[in-house]
Amino acid sequence: MSNALLSVTDLHASVEEKTILKGLNLTVNEGEVHAIMGPNGAGKSTLGYVLSGREGYEVNSGSAKLGEADLLDLDPEERAREGLFLAFQYPVEIPGVSNLEFLKAAVDAQREARGEEPLSSKDFLKQAREACKQVNLPADFLKRGVNEGFSGGEKKRNEIMQMLLLQPKLCILDESDSGLDIDALQVVAEGVNSQRDGKRSFVVVTHYQRLLDFIKPDFVHVLADGQIVKSGDASLALELEAQGYAWLQEQRARDAELLGEEHV
Amino acid sequence: MSTWLANAIVRGTDVSDWLSEKRQAALGKLKQQSWPNRKTEAWKYTPVSVIDRGAFSPAVNDVDANAAIDAIDNLDASALVFLNGRYCEALSCKTLPEGVSITSFHNASAAQKEWALAQFASVKPDRHLFGLINDVLAEDGLLIDVEPGVQVTTLLRVVNLFSEGIEAHSRILVRVGKGAKLAIAEEFTNSTPSLNTSFAEYVIEDNAELEHYRFALQTGSALSVGGGHFKLHDHSKLHSTLVGFGSQLSRVDVDIEHAGQHAYAEKNVVYLLDGKEIFDLHSTIEHAKPNGTTEENVRGIVADQAKVVFNGRIHIHRDAQKTLAELNNRNLLLSRKAEVNTKPELEIYADDVRCAHGATVAELDTKALYYLQSRGVSRQDAQIMLNFGFINELVDRMPNEALATWLRSKLKVRFAQMKVSSPQDALVNS
Asked: Which keywords does the record carry (chain A) (predicted)?
C-alpha cells in the first residue's frame, strides 16, 4: 500500500457565495498520476485554487492534507513550501518583475523553509538556464518580465519551467494543454514525465484525452457538479473522449431515480 | 514679494555678456511676474517660501571639488561636469565623441553664438518663473551641437555637483542636426543643502533622434527647480526618461512641442518619495502639427508624508489631425498621509485624433500577489517585488541597459529605505 500524499475529504467550497465544490473526495498516493476530467463549470479549476489558497475561495467544510500538513490552515506561500505546485491555466503577467528575480525569490524562499542556504546567483542561473532549455524557452526569457508578452504556449512552458526548478511533491496542472499546438504539448508532457520519479505525484486537470496520450495517468476521475462522480483507469478517459459527458449524467440521473425508488 | 527674487532681479541687472539682449528681455518679463503663493495655479501645492528661508551664496570660482561622479559599470559615456553651475573642464572628460561640438558659454565661437542666440529661450516657454530667472542668471552653460547625420553612440553625462550653501544656475542648449542621433543624461544626485535652477532646451531636427534622461535624485534640503524643453521637427524621435526623488523643493517643468509632422515622443517618469519630500512635475505637450504621437507614462510610489504634484497637459491644435496621444499617471501610496495631487488635462481642437488620459491611485494587483505567493514567496516579499516592479516597468523601457542597471540599484536602495520609514502594515491598521 502506498503512502497517501494528498487526501481531500468531503470538501465543500464556494466563490462569491456560490457553492462550487460539493463534497469532493480525492486521495493521491506518492508517485501517482491522476487525471481529472469533466464538463465546463464542474469545479475543476476551483479545486486547484482552493488547494493553493487563492483569496475569495471559501472553504465551507471538509479537509485537505498534503502529507501531514493541513493545507487549509496555511497561507498560499506555506502551502507551496510544503511542496504544492499549481500550474495555472492563465498565468498572470507581471511587467517590471523579471522572471529570473521572481524564480530566485521563490527558490530561495522554499530552500529557506527547508533550512537550506540560498543558492548563489551563479548556481541558480545555471539551473534556470537548464530548466529553460528543457522546456524549449530561450534563456533570455529569464530577463523578461514574468510572463510579459509571452504567447499562450510560452506561458504554459514557463509554468513547467517553474515546476522543474521548485521540485514540488504534488503538481496540479490546470489545463496545461489548453491552447497548445502538438509540439508545445509534447514539451509540456516531457517536462512532466521527466519529473515522474515514483515519489512525486501529479493531478492533471484537462478537458481532452489528448494530453493523456503523452502523460499516462494511473487514475481518471470525472468531476461533475462539484463531486467526483466516477473514477477508473486510463480507459475511462478514452470512453469519455468517445462519448462525452452526457451519458454519465444520464447514468447518474438513472442511479438517483433507482435510489429514490428504493426509498419508497 | 520675495527678498530672494528682488535680489535676483538686482543681480540680473548686472550680468553682461553675449546673451545680454536675451537676458534683458527675460528680466523685463520677470519683473511682471509675482512670487508664487497658494493661489498661483502653477504652484498651488508646492510652497517656494523655503527659498527665502535659506541663505544661499552665489557660486564662487575655485570651490573645492567634492567631485563624486558615480562610476557606472559597462557604460560608454563622456562626463561633462558642472560645478556649482559652472562648466568645469578639469573634471570633464577630455575625449569627446566625434561629430558633436561641445562648448561652454564662455568659450563659444561666433558661429556657435549665432545658433545659440536663436535657440536660447525659444524652446522654453516664458510662463515658467524660474525659467526666466535662469535666463537672467545662468552665467554658464553648454552648447551641444550634433552635426547632421552623425550617430553619437557615446552617452553624454551632464553631471551637476554643488557645494554646501551654494546657489547655482546653469543652462544647456542642444541641437540635434538632421538625421543625427544623440543620447544625453542630466544628473543631479547630490543632496548638499543648496539651490539650483537648471534648464535645458533641445531642438531635434528632421529625422533626428534624441534619447534623454534627467535624474533629479537630489533629496533633503537640496532645492532644485528645472526644466526640459523639446522641439520636435518632422519625423523626429524623442525618448525621454525623468526620474525624481523628492526634496524640500524639487520641481521640473517639461514642454514637448510637436513643431513638425510625424514626430514621436515617449516620455516616462518615475518618482519615489519619502519623509516630507515634495516632487512637482508640470508637463505640457503641444501638438501643433498633424500625425504626431505622444506616449507619456508617469508613475511613482509615495511613502510617509511625502507629496507629489503632477500636472499633465496635452494640447492638440486645430491643425494637428491624426494625432495619437496618451497620458497616464499611476501612483502607489504607502501611507495614509502620503499625498498625490494629479491633474491630467486634455485640450483638443482637432476632430480626427485619438487621445486617452487617466490617473489612478493604484492598489496592488491581488492576482499577481497570489501568483507570487503560490510559488512560495512570502506576502511581504511579494508586495515589495510588485511595488518595485510597478516602477521598474518604466526603467525596463530605457534604451540604455547599463544606465538602467545603475538606476535600478539606486532605486532599490531608496526603496529599501522607504520601507523602513513606512511599513505597509501600518497603513492597514491606521
From this structure: ATP-binding, Nucleotide-binding
